[in-house]
Amino acid sequence: MASFTLHGIPVSRGIAIGRAHLLAPAALEVKHYLIPDEQVEAEVQRLQKAIATVHKELQTLWNELPKDSPAELGAFIDVHALILSDPMIAEVPLEIIRTRNYNAEWALVTQIDELSAQFDEIEDAYLRERKADIQQVGERVLKVLTGTASTLVKDGGDDAAGHLIVVAHDISPADMLQFKDRAFGGFVTDLGGPNSHTAIVARSLDIPAAVGMANASALIEQDDLVIIDGDAGVVIVEPPPNVLEQYRERQARIARDRKKLGKLRKTPAVTRDGTEVTLLANIELPEDCTAAMDAGAVGVGLFRSEFLFMGRTGVHHKLPTEDEQFESYRKAVVAMKGRPVTIRTLDIGADKPLDVAEQTALNPALGLRAIRFCLAEPQMFLAQLRAILRASAYGPVKLLIPMMAHAFEIDQSLAMIEQAKQQLRDAGEKFDPLIPVGAMIEIPAAALTLPMFIKKMDFLSIGTNDLIQYTLAIDRADHEVAHLYNPLHPAVLHLLSTTIALGARANVPVAVCGEMAGDVRLTRLLLGMGLREFSMHPTQLLSVKQEILNSDIEALAPQTKKILRSYDPVAIAEAVEELRAV
Ligand code: PEP
Ligand code: MG
Questions:
Q1: What is the set of domains in the chain, with CATH numbers?
Q2: Is there a smaller number of Cβ atoms within 10 Å at the N or the C end of the chain?
Q3: Is the CB of 328 inside a 6 Å radius of any atom of ligand 1?
Q4: What is the pTM (predicted TM-score) of this model?
Q5: In sequence order, what are the residues at sequence separation of 6 or more whose Cβ sits closer than 8 angstroms to the Cβ of residue 423?
Q6: Regarding predicted confidence, which is higher, 155 or 87?
């Protein structure tokens, strides 16, 4: 097959080389993992058993049909039974398990998608509509299977695992999160912007990924050999041997460099001129604390608690209970062994809907998101506050509130924290009464009225992802405007630098927890602005630390001032690049 190259948006660095695994939207809704060779026959039997169970179900349905029911109903059941017996359903998925080591659900959905695509091409409208029957039969089998899921195979469980490249039209943040304990080597999607939450989760997985690839999922075929250049946002399909060789060498070089960086784990982050810098981790789930500790983070600067709330539709009830949340927060606090854990209250909405199917807002990024949603759902918010407060009895916890813009949001949030504390006192529960409360500065209005926040908050954390989105009016998840999403726009730099400076003047600690904090190309610029707290994915921490160790703040400061006075985007970009040579 001929080689071709696709260009998109780089979102997670590194090189991935592997075989393409196309995931249709339906396939994303089921679990997909690889079965070790020795368990393949057991997995085949699991699917055979599920099919047999559905046969019985259909038989029972048939037997229990009321005498006076319309004839079509019986015929309908017959059609489903026939479909279920057809080798296309009863045998091909078994072969997929045997040849590709897919789990039963994945094998079944793969085959159903394949059949559905064939049906789409049929001219005859009646036959074309039989597609729905096939899907319904598939769903019946899936329902039985989900009750009998076998254990997941974790990363490293199979040598081939790292060589699978997921190719999909789009992947929601919740689906991306599912890949955390699965085995994939890279991601390519048609949609998505550089700072969509899907991209952020890909970065936290430390797996090369490229998004905004237009029609990659239509052009790339199952099992094609694919290279993802996650630094350039380029995907090469069926590369010629010399190109493949070059990328393998680059991959090996990156692995060697990473190994070297590992030596910096315990080195304190201090600049050449002796300024101490605090390097914190961003996490989505308590399990990520292992990676944070391994990278030498001195705490968690951002625990995106909404990931505990997402992807819970279907068999789960919707919201995690106070106790469930408490367990997750406590787990993170204990795992960090006395290092502070900053838990951000629910930031649901925009590209992180609780339920994708229920997303109805016309413009969700400007809608009932984050603190707005929490203040509109006080019982839910109080439950979360109590859960966080209870976790603060197990180690240092800070409470961070997202998306604040209005004075009343500050006052109401603080009042609700007081109310949650009182409820816990009444119940005799322990918590840290002096828990620090901070605000995310991520709406331009907040950055422009900073004294309002400084007066009432114990600390601030700048969310550059949203600050850029709202300052430049660029949807961070939309690849069509991704070229306009510029962290170095003078307006963004102005809001950032004034927030850092005003915080320092008032002695209120300011961190950056947006993606800018983990971008090693911007480390010196942020140091020059006076930033001393950076929170990022654990995977980025050691390269940022290396940059800090090589930086001299005194030398950076005058150059940074010059950058902040400029309105010329090209000159700014060049000067930021030059800072790395200072
Ligand atoms: C941000 O907006 O920069 C941020 C850290 O929060 P999130 O990416 O979760 O919106
Ligand atoms: Mg944000």
A1: 4-25+152-259 (3.50.30.10), 37-146 (1.10.274.10), 266-579 (3.20.20.60)
A2: N
A3: no
A4: 0.77
A5: 382, 386
A6: 87
